[in-house]
Amino acid sequence: MEHAKKEFMKSIAIFSTLLGMLLLQSCSKTKDAPSPGPDPVTPTHFSLQFKPSIVLAAGEQMQDYEFIISLNNNQDEPVLVDKKLALLDSGGLYAAKLELQRGTYRLTKFLLARKTGRVLFASPIAGSQKAQLVTQPLSMVVTNGQTNLKVQEVQLLPVNPNDRESFFGYPDGIFNLPLDPNEPEPATRKLKVHPVVRIGDVVYDSIPTSLQLYTWDQQNNVNLLQFSSPGGIHEITLAPNVRRFRVRMSKWASQSELELTVGQLEETRVYKLEIVKAPQPLRELLTYKMVNNNWAAIEKVEYKYDAAGRQKQTHAFS
Questions:
Q1: Which residue has better confidence, 300 or 58?
Q2: CA 162 to chain centre
Q3: Between the CA atoms of 97, 102, 104 and 105, what dihedral angle is there, to the nearest 10 degrees?
Q4: Is the pLDDT of residue 268 over 70?
Q5: Using only C-alpha atoms, what is the Rg of the chain?
Q6: Following CA atoms 202, 206, 207, 212 in sequence, which dihedral angle do they give, to the nearest 10 degrees?
Q7: Cα Dmax for the chain
Q8: d(CA 163, CA 181)
Q9: pLDDT exceeding 90 applies to what percent of the chain?
Q10: Is the pLDDT assigned to residue 16 strictly greater than 60?
Q11: Residues 226, 211: Cα–Cα separation, whole Å
Q12: CA proximity to 265, closest of 207, 202, 187
């Protein structure tokens, strides 16, 4: 009898366990699935990258070149004018990416130039003499569609020695072409300056100073470089596209400057930048002596001057 009771209780326990498992499974099946999050918001901007149809010659350094582009919006209003973009090597030659608001744009200029300013390749404008040599002349419509990155191919043609800007549909003068097609690329120039400070009869010709170099190119764009001179003669390298420059020396709240065109520059000459200051009269003189491993003032001399700057009195204290 006792054995039958135990078996009955055991059966009830197993049944209760199974029933609990079924109830739990039923609850998990009827539980609402989590609702999906909101749709991602469409970004207001996209990236635009140009892929030109050229390959640089072996040995050419990309950092010596830059793309120059102009871009209008769909109302034909300028968005970017003569924007300079770096060259990138990403399994091919690309221009650095631009971040733009989503919309439709028109590419109106695309050039590849040396950083000296000389244009080597250009995308021709429709109706120009060179436009018939490409299948996609400018201006070119660029739209992002629904993508976050738009890669736009651009066809470029070399600017040959006897070419002019008008052959490509551009205004004369913007390619920085030489008058003589055989004229070599302009070279860098050296400017030697010697900062000097003169106080009365004392000349400091090897004194640290601050220098500022302002340069202007053919389009009158200004560039500023600031650096320190440790003293003595300082040599400055001027970029090939510099047409005019000004170098300014600063020391003790005073300045001296020189301004020249590159045509006036004599590379073998050392140009002196001189600050002249009046000597200041000596007001006091202290004499120190080592006492118990410390410097102690043992004498003080004060100097007095009249209105003309002549010494009139001397007071000594000890």
A1: 300
A2: 34
A3: -40
A4: yes
A5: 39
A6: 120
A7: 137
A8: 9
A9: 37
A10: no
A11: 6
A12: 187
Q: State both tokens at 87.
A: 């060259």
Token reading at 214: 């302002």
H helix count then E strand count, the chain: 1, 22
Residue 138's CB: how many other CB atoms inside 10 A?
Answer: 23
- The one-letter amino acid code at 258 reads L
Looking at the DSSP bridge assignments, the partners of residue 99 are 47
Domains for the chain: give ranges and CATH numbers: 45-168 (2.60.40.3540), 189-277 (2.60.40.1120), 284-317 (no CATH)
Among left, alpha and beta (phi > 0; psi -120 to 50; other), residue 269 is: beta
Exposed, middle or buried: residue 209 (CB in 10 Å: 0-12, 13-18, 19+)? buried
pTM of this prediction? 0.48
> CA neighbours within 13 Å on the CB side: how many for 203?
8
Site of tokens 């250009």 = 122
Q: What angle do CA 91, 134, 110 make, to 5 degrees?
A: 60
Q: Which of 227, 221, 225, 191 is nearest to 115 (CA)?
A: 221
Beta bridge partners of 95: 87
Residue type, 86: A
The predicted-structure confidence for 187-224, as pLDDT tens digits, reads as follows 678 999 999 999 888 898 998 999 999 998 877 888 89
CA atoms within 13 Å, Cβ hemisphere of 206: 0
Q: Locate 307 and state its tokens.
A: 């209105």
